[in-house]
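Final report, closing paragraph on structural work. Over the funding period we assembled a curated collection of sequence-structure pairs, and we close with a single example.
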Amino acid sequence: MEAENSPLRDIVGRKLMLEYDIGSAQNGDASFPGMFLRPGERPIVGAAGQANDVGAVVDALVSCVGWEINEAQRENVERAYLAQPEDTRMDSFGVFPSRSREIRLAIMGFKSQKDLGSYLENTGWPGRIPAVDSVISRFRERVPIIRTGVNIDVGEQGLGPTLGLTLIVKQRYTKDSRYWLDGLTDWDPFLDALSHEDIVVPEKLAALAGWVSKPTPLFAKSGRFVLLRGIHHIKLVVSGNRLQKAKAYVFMVLSGAVSF
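Its predicted structure, as stored:
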């Protein structure tokens, strides 16, 4: 990524994202973080003939964690890309070195349940598509869903049975690259819809809603800073025949304030 004229850098830029599991760290395990690359420089979109870009990102991820390239797994990832409809994009590629050897794909932009169902069927996802439809339908009754994204795990034998759903509601739908910087109330409709699910703990949901805050000015010897807190995304985990988990990913950004 740092080399000049790097094909990988042309696709993902210079950013490698790390995901730490804070809960497991409490056990004293020296587990490696998840590693993610996001095609931010040259987006990888469905039906655009970018299988070579997909292969380049996969090879880079596998190499950076010391795994040997597995042709069957690589072909399965390529097959997952080739099945994407137009207007969808590979949002990120990830690996978890301390877990099983699978590649996590985040695919965003499905316009309808039919498009998503066809995609899961065409890729041979082994889970229950009616269970996915049921979750999306319940949320559609409570809040307008504009786009849907999925997280799938791709291994040597194909796709794993667990599916992550990201539902983008009308209040949060934007094509701006800074889509995760929301207004204070943009998440309220989705959080209200989520509150009706049996698996949700009301106290945790209230704490999540309270995490979102206005930009907060901070003062230090080195200057003035601005603290931003918010929700990046919420993933609904479908496994077996039901919604098993709802996982919220929050952010905290400390930025130097600009004076005019």
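Residues 7-174+181-256 form one domain. DSSP finds eight helices and eleven strands in the chain. We thank the funder for supporting this effort.
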